[in-house]
């Protein structure tokens, strides 16, 4: 059975909500409803950084043999003020290993609060843009578009989306996920 691997942090792990309400569970339902035979494997871990993802990606690729990988990491790097160039190196390694394994990859971009100033925030956001351009990876600029600044869609911590936001997260990511799935079908995988 073809596999879609979601490789992210708390935004994809369903932090603070029932796992059946998470956008990744909704992705499985959407795939089935649209006739895809893919199973969704959610290898996301709350609190994960790009460094942790770099360490875990080889085992995830070996264990699940995904056709498509949805990479959603970096938010915790930004919240902790990690250097954007280190995050970029880590994400590049994850992308390279995924591509070497023959899987398609899509990148979900994250934005962070401006606590560290506009220069850091811009450098952080540029990591996704630069990697997508350099490595030919489909991406979306801001996975939490329309959600992050809407208190009604956020949990009390102001960081994590609530259950009502999950369909919107899926809708934000769906166009590039669908593009990756179509590319895999055309490629005959």
In short:
With 189 residues, this protein is of the alpha/beta class.
Between the first and last Cα atoms, what is the distance in angstroms?
11 Å
Mean pLDDT over the residues:
95
Largest sheet: 5 strands, parallel
Order of helices and strands: EHHEHEHHEHEH
List keywords for this structure.
alpha/beta; globular; 5 strands; five-stranded parallel sheet; Rossmann fold; 48% helix; 189 residues
Q: What would you say this structure looks like, in words?
A:
This protein has 189 residues and is of the alpha/beta class. The protein has a five-stranded parallel beta sheet, with helices on both faces. It is globular and about 45 Å long. Helix content is 48%, strand content 12%. It has helices at 10-13, 23-33, 50-64, 75-79, 84-100, 118-135, 166-186; strands at 3-8, 39-42, 68-72, 104-108, 139-140. The protein has one domain (3-186): 3-Layer(aba) Sandwich (Rossmann fold). It is built from seven helices and five strands. Helix 2 packs across helix 7 (166-186), helix 3 (50-64) runs parallel beside helix 5 (84-100) and helix 5 runs parallel beside helix 6. The mean pLDDT is 95.
Write the layout of secondary structure elements.
Elements (H helix, E strand, L loop, with lengths): L2 E6 L1 H4 L9 H11 L5 E4 L7 H15 L3 E5 L2 H5 L4 H17 L3 E5 L9 H18 L3 E2 L25 H21 L3
Parallel strand pairs: 1-2, 1-3, 3-4, 4-5
Helix pairs in contact: 2-7, 3-5, 5-6
């Amino acid at each position: 059975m073809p596999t879609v691997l979601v490789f992210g942090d708390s935004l994809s792990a369903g932090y603070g909500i029932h796992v059946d309400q998470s956008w990744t569970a909704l992705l499985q339902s959407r795939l089935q409803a649209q006739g895809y035979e893919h199973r969704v494997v959610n290898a996301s871990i709350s609190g994960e950084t790009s460094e942790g993802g770099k360490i875990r990606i080889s085992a995830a690729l070996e264990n699940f043999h995904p056709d498509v990988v949805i990479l959603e990491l970096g938010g915790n790097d930004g919240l902790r003020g990690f250097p954007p160039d280190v995050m970029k190196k880590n994400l590049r390694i994850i992308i390279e290993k995924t591509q070497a394994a023959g899987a398609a990859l899509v990148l979900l971009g994250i934005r962070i609060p401006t606590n560290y100033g506009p220069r850091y925030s811009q450098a952080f956001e540029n990591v996704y843009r630069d990697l997508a351009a350099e490595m030919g990876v489909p991406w979306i600029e801001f996975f939490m578009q329309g959600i992050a600044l809407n208190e009604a869609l956020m949990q009390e911590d102001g960081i994590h989306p609530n259950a009502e936001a999950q369909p919107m997260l899926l809708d934000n990511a769906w166009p590039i996920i669908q593009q990756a799935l179509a590319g895999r079908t055309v490629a005959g995988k």
